[in-house]
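pasting for ref. prot 1 ->
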Amino acid sequence: QPLSVVHRDDKTLASLAVLDVVLNNADRKAAHIAVDAQGRVWAFDHGLIGHVEPKLRTVLWGWAGQELPAADVARLEVLLDRLTDGGDTGLESLLSGSELAALRQRVEDLLEAGEFPDVPFGRYPLPWPLW
């Protein structure tokens, strides 16, 4: 039976969706997102990120196939520059060489596509449970 996951069309959530793609977040549940009294969005995670194999599972698929926002493209370009120029990103002690290469590839792929990825059909794209 089809399942619809619905969320606000919000630029902060869209940026979080971009971050999830970059990090290859395997567990973005609805309960891992909170809004404080000032309206700031907070994302909570427990580290199911960075795998070299595609494992993106998120409730933030609402922008699939849509153009990436310009602000996110600019941030991705800065990240790619830092990952490419051999400078110290601070990630070298946290990620293996293959994980860093996969991170860079995901950023390059996002920039080349210029849009949010489509929902994958060869594997389950949602975390479980959703909340």
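and prot 2 ->
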Amino acid sequence: FHLSLDSGGAKLYSTNIPGDLAIVPLTPFGIGTQLIISGSTSSITSIAFDNSGNAYFTDSGPGGTGDVGRIDLNTGVTTTVLTNVPAAHGMVFDSFTNTLMLFGSNHITQLNTDPGLTTFSDVALSPSFHLDQGGSDGKGHLLAADNGGNLVFMDYSLGTHKVGNVGNVVASPFLASNLDDVAPLVGLGSPSTPEPGVVGLIGGLFSAAALAFRRRSRAWNFDK
């Protein structure tokens, strides 16, 4: 269900929600093999890599709320750092803030990649949302898929660069029923040189969302 590339782009990791981990070689493309997961948890949902190539995992089911920690992809050994995190479902590394960006339940959470995986920021969106996976563009914007069909857009490029900043522009227009994921916008898995039409589409979506949808702060529950 959830796919991620390793830091070198030579391997593809595939997980259940949560479940086993498969590793598929890409250079050259070959048959995948299972890596047995052990340690603090035996099943995972998402994997993300920081700028140094360190690997992190989440392990929640479709509804969100689960654990976050580190995983050694040579041995499959997991080390849980945080438990009962509402957003511990989808996860990407955000190169704009150098934080892990988590999506799950109705939360978006940023974590510092320090030993304690401390919370940089968190925001709770509409209680009806069930966020699945998302992506950031490396310039302070993110898109997140709500299983109810809404596409959440956020501009956190100004001010504190926190998702919980009350000055952020946030929009959540309906896009398609059973929305599940957003393809990578930057970094691993994204087009290295997007076609002009793709750039225009993304830029247009960001611009339209910023202009047409101004989030009223009283409708959202932000951190300080």
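Residues 193-224 have pLDDT under 50 and may be disordered.
Residues 196-212 form the longest helix (17 residues).
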